[in-house]
Design brief:
12% helix, elongated, 167 residues, six-stranded antiparallel beta sheet, Immunoglobulin-like, single chain, five-stranded antiparallel beta sheet, 1 helix
């Protein structure tokens, strides 16, 4: 399944503030997830990763990848928030049959896992279009009752004056 959505021009300051309000609980949950690994009754899905790179996968197509750990699948209800302060004429694309995408205020995107992502799977999604001088952050949050020991749950892709940074 392929989906390509076009992002409209930047929104008002009020819209940006509303988008930030949507993302705060998701980011807060992601930061708290590693400590949950020690909690009794928590399912450890292992060392999943969300990464990005400065190498374009195709003309103007910059990718993020979610790689599941070797032990357990990423569960249904896992969230991946893709956000930017200014989408401008940039857009996103994904080819994931086991997720759905929802447009949030501020043009940010929330991917929700609708079917388990098997262990050892690499799942890509991209930003493209006018990405110069923009920063995109992808944050993965597991549902309640799950934790990822040694997981990497945040990736940031940034372009500043033609110089790319990927962490």
């Amino acid at each position: 399944m392929t989906s390509t959505d076009t992002i409209e021009p930047a929104k008002s300051r009020r819209t940006i503030v509303k988008a930030a309000a949507w993302s705060v609980p998701v980011i807060a949950a992601a930061v708290g997830a590693p400590s949950a690994a020690a909690s009794p009754g928590t399912v450890d899905v292992g060392a999943f990763r969300i990464d990005t790179t400065c190498t374009a996968e195709a003309e103007g197509l910059f990718g993020f990848r979610v790689t599941t750990g070797a032990g357990k699948p990423l569960p249904v209800g896992t969230l991946i928030l893709l956000e930017s302060e200014s989408w401008g004429a940039a857009s996103y694309r994904f080819e994931m049959t086991h997720v759905s995408a929802s447009q949030l205020p501020g043009r940010n995107v929330l991917f929700t896992v609708t079917r388990e992502i098997p262990p050892g799977t690499v799942t890509p999604f991209w930003v493209h279009g006018e990405v110069a001088n923009k920063t995109f952050t992808a944050t993965l949050t597991l549902p309640a009752g799950y934790a990822g020991t040694d997981a990497k749950s945040v990736a940031v892709w940034s372009d500043a004056g033609g110089v790319c940074s990927a962490t």
